[in-house]
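Q: What does the assembled structure look like for these inputs?
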Amino acid sequence: MKLALQNILHDRGRFSVTVLGVSFAVFLMVFQGSLLSGFLQAASRLIDASDSDIWITARGVQAFEFGTALESRVREMAAGVPGVMDTSRVCMAFAVYRTPIGKQQVVALVGADPGVGRRFPVPNRLESAAEMSPDAVLYDVSDRKQIEVNTLPSEVEINRHRASIEREIQGYGAFLGVPFLFTSYRNAIRYMDSGPDQAMYILLRIDKAYPVSQVQQSLKQRLPEVDVLTQDEFAHKSRMYWTIKTGAGGAILTAAVLGFLIGLVVVSQTIYANTMENIEEYATLKALGASQSFVARIVLSQALICGAIGSVLGLLAVIPSISYAKSLIPWIHAPWWLPGAMVVPSLAMCSLASIVSVRSALTVEPGRVFRA
Amino acid sequence: MPSPFLGVEDASVSFGQGEARVCALRDISLTFERGTLSLLMGPSGSGKTTMLSMLGCLLSPDEGTVFVDGVAVNGLSEAERTVIRQTKISFVFQAFRLFHSLSALDNVALGFEIRDAAASGREEMARDLLLQFGLGDKLHQEPNDLSPGEKQRVAIARALAGNPPILLADEPTASLDAEAGRNICNILRRQVDEHGRTVVVVSHDWRWEKFADRTVTLCDGKVEEEVGVL
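A:
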C-alpha cells in the first residue's frame, strides 16, 4: 500500500486540507461529545450524589432544580411503608445572596439532611465536618468569582439571613449559570422561610430485604398525589429534561453531527479529486492485472491514512482545549473512552467519503491505457 | 487442430453505433507462436492497438475468438480476464505509464505486488531487475527525474515482474531517441531469446523489423501483408 501513501504525500497541499478536515471533525466531535457528556452528568449530579434508592417529588417535577414543596405528612406516610429503612429531606430554592461587599445576586440554595448520601455536599457529610459549624454554607470552587468570598469563613446574607460561608468544594459548580450554595436542611429552610419539616424531596433508603420496585409500588399506592421514582429514574428524567426538552442537548449534538458532516464533505472532495487526478494510474493498475479489491484497497487506504493522521492531530488539539475549557465551563467532561471512541466514527467517515472515489477507480476502463 | 498459443480467429471489432459506427478489425485471424517477437505495423486507424487490446484481454471482439496461452478468453468474466492479465500478460506503453509518486524501485516492486501480493522479497527482486537494465543508480528516483529511455526501461522491468510469458508493447520506442530506442529493441529481443517470452510489438518504427521474427502489416482492419518465418 505504498502507492496509497505516496499518492497522498505527493500532493502535500491536498493532503493537508484532508487532514485538516478530519482534525476539525474529530476536534468538534470530541469537544461537543465532552460538552454533552458533562451536561448529562451535571443535569443529574446532585441526584447521583445521594445514596438513596427512591426519590419522592411533587407531581410533575422535571428536574432537581425545579422542585416544589411536598406536604410534611408525605415523609411520615412514606416512613410507614414496609421496607423503608430511612428517610431524608432535601430542599432547594432560588435565593437572594448578598456578597461580603454588598453585591446582590440569585443563587440556588440546597439543604439536605446528613443521611442523604456520602457524596452529597452538606456540611455534616464532609471529612472536615468537625472543623465547621453545623450550619456552614459551602460553595464550589468554580463559582468563587461569583460568590466573591476572599477569606474563609466569611459572613454573607442569604434571603436577608446572616450566613457563614466556610468551605470550598469541588465538582458541584454552576450548571444554570446560577451558583449552588449547600448547607444543612435545618439551615436551608430557615433561609427559605419555609415551615418546619417542609421539603422538596423526600429520599428513602430501602431495606436490602425488600425489592426496591415492590416498595416503590407500595409507595405509589399510598401516595398517589406525588411522584415516586427510583434514583435512576429521577436522574434519567432530569437529564432528559435538560437535554431534550430545553433543546440544549440537541444543539450540542447538532454541532457534533455538523463536525462529522463537514469532515465527510472535505475528505470526500479531496479524496475524490486525488482519485480523478490519478485515474490513469488506476487504469494502468487494472491493465497490469490488479484486482478490484486491490484497487479499492488503495483508495480506501488513502482515506484511512488521512483519517488516522487527522484523528491524532484532532485529539492532540482537543485534549488541551478541553482542559482549558474547564476553567470556563466547569461541568465539561471528557470520559476516558471518548477521544478513542471518536476515532471510530472519523475512520468510518473517511471510509464513507471514499465510496464515490472507489467507485470511480473501479469503473475506469483498463483499455484506456493505450490512449496516449 | 490445437488452439494457438496467442492469437485471434475470425475476430471483428467495431466502435460506435449507427452512422458513427467504425469497424476497427474485420474478420481477422492472426496467431503468435510461443517464443517469438512479432511486429504489428500499419497506418493509424488500421487496427493495431485494437488487436493489442484483444490480445491483452482488455477488449472482447464482437465476433470471433481470442486465445491466450491456448485458452479461448472472450467468454470469460472480467474477474477471470483480470487473472489472465495478472499471470500471463504484461504491457509496455508508449507513454510509460509509471506511477509518478513512486520511485523506480517501488514501481517495479508494485508490479510484483500486483501479481502476487503475498510474495516476499519484492524489493530485492525489483532491485535485481533494475540492475539488469543498468538502472542501479536510479533506484530511488521518481519517474519525473528519469530520461525517457530510463523510464521505458523501468516500465519494462515492471512489466517483467512476476515473469509473465507474454509481453505486449505499444509503440515502446516512439518517445525515445535513436540510441534509447535501439536499447529497448535489444532488451525486448533478449526477452525472446533468453527467456522464451512471446513479444508482440505495435510500432511505426521500421528499426524494429530487424529485431522481429515476423512483421504483420494491417490496413483498414485486415491483414495486408505478413513477412517472416512463421
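The interface with chain B takes residues 2-3, 6-7, 9-10, 280-281, 284-292, 294, 366-367, 369-370, 372 of chain A (CB under 8 Å).
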